[in-house]
Amino acid sequence: MGKIKRYSCGAVFSPPDSRDYKFASLGGANAAVEPYQSIVPVGEVWNQLNSNQCGGCAGTYYRREREFMQTGDDSRFSHTYIYGSDDFGGEGMFARNLASILRIGIPHMQPWEAWNSKPQAQMVVSSHSRELAEECHLFRCNSYYFCMTWTEVLNAIRVCNGCVLMVACYDNWNTYNGVVGKNKGNLWGYHFVFAKDYVKKDNGAYRIRFVNSWGKEWGDNGCGYLDTDVNEFEEAFAIVDNVEEIKRMLFKDVKTDRWSYDSIQKAAKKGVMTGFEDGTFRPEASLTREQLAVVLDRAGFLDRLPDAE
């Protein structure tokens, strides 16, 4: 198998920006992590050819996963649209740019998908701006949050059905089984991938499966594997469609092996108990009469009772 050329890596470091949302602000920094297997099959793995469309592909895989989980829509979306919508002057894309485009929205597949140069993509996207704007409105997200640790990445995969990673590509990315070892050799460049799901390893670390954009002939049928005890990432972000829902799923003080975990998650999902602003649930705290009244009201119990005589 030949070496993947440097121009296949199209990610560029985002400049520091104090306005970036951090995933930990949702309460996810210390939340429990458990293996979560995505129900969407790998399906078609695109080959970005010579176009540096790694960001477009990773973002499109992400949006497709979200739409399938929410609506059952498993049709393709346009990664060329993302590529053509990127205003970065050179060949490449900031993680923040990619996240911002996904926040605005992404359209379904269109006939221009074969274009693989940025000028061509931008020309075609601009000529269909009105139709695209209407469709993008249907597939936009609420916000995006940057992950600072592998724990936050795992939480983003678990509750957001995926996470976009920017990683460094070295010679050891030329792999048949997709398992990426510790960085070594020549640096080819920086690259976006879609972190899809993960499993726990025997030593307690995690192996993350990601969908690449170098075609099915690369790695494990187009997928690769990063180990949290071996590999590092440069940037990572999660797309959030409902901030409050994510907060309810990320209680910092409720571990998955707690006897009441399932009931607490169910109560949170139903909106009966939503936790506190610091991301905690405080499962052993006493319940005041006032809090009990609110819980019973949210559960609809009070509406079923007759008025007191």
Description:
This protein is an alpha+beta fold. Helix content is 29%, strand content 15%. It is built from 9 helices and 8 strands. It has helices at residues 54-71, 79-85, 95-104, 118-127, 129-136, 150-160, 243-248, 261-269, 289-298; strands at 11-12, 93-94, 143-146, 163-170, 187-200, 206-211, 223-227, 235-240. Strands 3-8-4-5-6-7 form a 6-stranded antiparallel β-sheet. A two-stranded parallel sheet has the order 1-2. Strand 5 and strand 6 (206-211) form a beta hairpin. Helix 1 (54-71) packs parallel to helix 3 (95-104). The longest helix has 18 residues, at 54-71. The protein starts with 10 loop residues before the first strand and ends in an 11-residue tail after the last helix. Residues 1-7 have low confidence and may be disordered.
